[in-house]
Design goal:
The chain has helices spanning 2-11, 32-37, 50-55, 75-85, 89-103, 122-128, 132-144, 167-174, 183-186, 202-211; strands spanning 63-69, 114-117, 154-155, 178-179, 190-198, 218-226. The chain is built from ten helices and six strands, in the order H-H-H-E-H-H-E-H-H-E-H-E-H-E-H-E. Helix 5 (89-103) crosses helix 7 (132-144).
Length: 229
């Protein structure tokens, strides 16, 4: 079996999704050079980071952070494109594990009860085949042993892609599209809301407004990347 796998790896070598170079023995998902060049934000170490400030005065979020910094045409954009649009779920899971290894050193992560990924509308989920935020959350869960609950937040309205919309249009696009169908399970819980990319924060804000109506919910946010505009 191992011989067959080695033979296949010679014919179809695994390549780094960022630079395209073949992975060497011992490298996983990313080549060593790209791994060490990842533009990490380290926002989880700074309570007043730019992502937290983004939500200040909008929704009551205790901590907000992202793993990587997104830039147009940059390595993170290429990485996320491979993950989301080329069905390479192992990338999102791996990045979730990497981020969890950093989050475990913060005090606030220790009191989290549930990871709640931002849901896709059922039509979009059927078309894509997976929820990228859930895959990322599963990677975090695999290291931190915090359960992922994809049954506590629902997307009840189909919304268009946010990519080319203005800040106001993004908010209009996601207003009233979420609901929390099981408020009893969330009461008095400490939640980490997980997303893939935060830009204006409109999606997180819309989801948070529903979750924060539940009795004594404490809300935190973690995302794969931050794309400031």
């Amino acid at each position: 079996m191992k011989f067959f796998q080695d033979f296949l790896s010679l014919l179809y070598p695994e390549v780094c999704p960022i630079c395209g170079n073949a992975l060497l023995v011992g490298e996983k998902i990313l080549c060593t050079i790209c791994f060490y060049k990842l533009p990490k934000t380290n926002y989880h170490l700074d309570a007043n980071n730019p992502v937290h400030e983004l939500f200040s005065g909008r929704v009551n979020i205790s901590h907000a952070a992202t793993f990587l910094r997104f830039s147009k045409g940059g390595m993170v954009q290429r990485l996320i494109h491979e993950f989301k649009y080329k069905n390479k779920r192992e990338i999102g899971f791996f990045l979730g594990e990497l981020y969890a290894n950093e989050l475990m050193h913060t005090d606030w992560i220790k009191s989290i009860d549930y990871l709640i990924p931002i849901p896709l509308h059922p039509l979009k989920l059927k078309k894509r085949g997976f929820n990228q935020s859930e895959v990322f959350a599963n990677g975090i869960s695999n290291i931190l042993n915090i359960p992922v609950r994809n049954d506590l937040l629902s997307r009840i309205k189909f919304s268009e892609t946010q990519t080319k919309k203005s800040k106001y249009k993004r908010w209009e696009n996601v207003k009233d599209i979420f609901e929390a169908p099981n408020s009893t399970a969330l009461a008095n819980r400490h939640i980490l809301l997980v997303d893939d990319v935060i830009t204006t924060g409109a999606t997180i804000e819309a989801a948070s407004q529903h979750l924060l109506q539940i009795e004594n919910v404490k809300l935190n946010v973690a995302a794969l990347a931050f794309a400031a505009i």
